[in-house]
Amino acid sequence: MSVPSGPRIITSRFDVADGHTYAGYVRTGGYVALRKAVGSMTRSRCTTK
Amino acid sequence: MKAAEIQGRGGAGFPAGTKWGFLPADVHPRYLVINGDESEPGTYKDRLLMERDPHQLIEGIVIACYALNAAQAFLYVRGEMALAQERLAQALNDAYANNMVGKNICGSTFSVDITLTWGAGAYIVGEETALIESLEGERGMPRLKPPFFPAVKGLYMQPTIVNNVETLANVPYIVSSGGSEFKAIGAPTSTGMRMFAVSGHVKKPGVFEVPNGVTTFRMLFEAPEYCGGVRDGRNVKAFIPGGASAMWFFPEHLDMALDKPTVDKAGSMLGSGAIVVMDDTTDMVAACWRIVRFFARESCGKCTPCREGTTWLERVLKRILDGHGRPEDIDLLMEVSESISPGIAWPPRQTTICPLGPSAVSPIASAVRRFRHEFDHYIAHGRPIDGVESPFAVAAASHA
């Protein structure tokens, strides 16, 4: 049975042993979105994007 | 968030971006409350998100607060989730230490604090206004809407947005990749990826992140990468598509997509993403009773139809299971159900403040309409029909 595929968005770190730690999160791309939001996006842009 | 068209993942499925837009302009303070009181039977996806990736949730919370211009967030976590609490507390301390939460985040002018709160084991505080009551130190009971719509009169009577854990966990991806990329995943009517917690009679129960709106129930139950089939090669007799509050689905619904409007139109909901599979050995009267018992015990008691009604529904069902059912009991079940949820339809109408009361009606309406012969058999013979596994076999046998 073939099933539709898609990216693992919110479970991508479930298989990372230290994915729950700060170091593991940052190493796997964590807090990039926050830096982008507060550094270069307006509040309304965050809501409408 | 609006471009992503992400539907809230907590139960109601309301578009999160639209909800954010409900906050009145220039009214401060305003709050973000995160509902981590995941308590519905069979629902355990948010717990895994909090245990396995707490920073993802914290990042989503901070971005949401930035977008909402809120300086304070409250993360309310179910009392029994000890590991989630431990990891969230550690993650929050680390996020503060690295300037991801607190004052002047990442060198910006934006500041926000996040307060962790542990629940005390009451299912009712999963309802947003009851959760707000609990946060204020009151007994967890729902508020009337109107006037207490949280976006207008929420926590401490200030504008408040209440979001689900999974909803906010998606925010970092949406900000990084763009709302249009998120929207391109799944179906136009149900965007992005979505988590479903599958339990019951499948070979591999678990939490799966699947393309929203295009994956079918059959794929989820049968595909090797998901549940791998029904146990012992048996057939599906019924399944609950979206939490214990939902109307049941049957084999004819297996090829339906996990798409909110499609499921809504078919008379149920995807709700909290908890799917419970029942195979053809299931005693439907017993299954019905187990769910109703949960709601009867979790009723907060504020509304009479729910407090009294769910209690009587549970008692009548137990009477039938114990072999003391009366011929009029099925009509009595429906009559009491009608007093809680007039019309016994979907979406449910209610004589109560919150949807907990009507939630107890869903399993009864589903089971009686589809499996009335099983109720009749219990009442006539004091035992279940042949071929089902009754958890009450000993008691039933004594009345045979």
Structural commentary:
The complex is a heterodimer of chains A (49) and B (400). Chain A is mainly α. Chain A contains three helices and no strands. The model of chain A has no long low-confidence stretch (mean pLDDT 94). By secondary structure, chain B is α/β, with parallel strands linked by helices. Chain B folds into three domains: 164 residues, Rossmann fold (3-Layer(aba) Sandwich), CATH 3.40.50.11540; 91 residues, Ubiquitin-like (UB roll); 116 residues, de novo design (two linked rop proteins). In chain B, the strands form three sheets. A four-stranded parallel β-sheet of chain B has the order 3-2-1-4, with helices on both faces. Chain B has a four-stranded mixed β-sheet with strand order 8-7-10-9, with no helix packed on it. In chain B, strands 5-6 form a two-stranded antiparallel ribbon. Chains A and B meet through helix 2 and helix 3 of A and helix 2, helix 3, helix 4, helix 7 and strand 8 of B.
Name some characteristics of this structure.
heterodimer; A: 49 residues; mainly alpha; 3 helices; flat; B: 400 residues; alpha/beta; Rossmann fold; Ubiquitin-like (UB roll); de novo design (two linked rop proteins); 4-stranded parallel beta sheet; 4-stranded mixed beta sheet; 13% strand
